[in-house]
Design goal:
With 286 residues, the protein is an alpha/beta fold. It folds into two domains: 6-140, Rossmann fold; 168-285, Hect, E3 ligase catalytic domain fold. Helices cover 51% and strands 14% of the residues. The longest helix is centred in the middle third of the chain and has 34 residues, at 121-154.
Amino acid sequence: MNKSKKTAVYARVSTREQAEQGFNLREQVRTVKSYISVFQSDYSNEIEVYVDDGYSAKNLNRKEMNRLIKDIKNGEIAKVVIHNLDRLTRRVKDLIRIIELFDEHDVELVSIKEKVETKTAMGRFFIMIIILIAQWEQETNSERTKRGLDQSATEGNYAKGRLAPFGYKKIDNRLTIDYNQSKIVKAIFMMYVNDRRSMEYIAHFLNSTSSNNRRWDMDKVRTILTNSIYYGNFNNNRVNIDGHSPSIIDEKDFRTAQLLLIVETLEKSTHIYLKVCVIVLQLEKD
């Protein structure tokens, strides 16, 4: 091994891991340095420490990870030692990218917990297997969490930790109507559906009347107009539940608002066939 090159120590924690699992950066670095001094015969190489504090492993776009990759490409690193593989990444695609980078620049990867090294083909094979299992476990846990949330929604609950939509209050994870805010929701639908006012006009009107001491804009108005919870319907890309929560408006008004939103979008188009769609929708609307 080239003694002029450095041995890199990489450590990472996310804020959630620090809070829930007690991961500590100093402990990671101390453990890795102790391992190097005991088990690595070339520990006399200069050690460079790279620490990413508060970064998840969802991608490689981290400050110190970027610095490490840059130093590897510049030929400054001979070996990277980590506490465990998911300090680097939890994604197979990113792991493959890292290993290919290490191979290209003759850099060895050592993971203490899994007891694997990339200097052998068997070591690289085991790393892939470990990451595949970790990704499968993560996706399984995610699916289990989603199933739990969907089941809770079918029982009338609104996602724990999720703020109640404007117009509602959340009590014991169930939505109840907020009297003052619900009046504003009704006014928004009335102005848009019955009076045919634009979203820009509605936002300006609400700001001029200091509605709920909230700064309104077109996006906030659109969010109200497109949320089916206001007629009691809860839906995501997995479940659709009618009668989930008390309704503030009629379903008919909500459906009409969606049609008007489509018409408004199509009217802005320059394509002739979309103009024809506007005419058809206008006939439907009337």
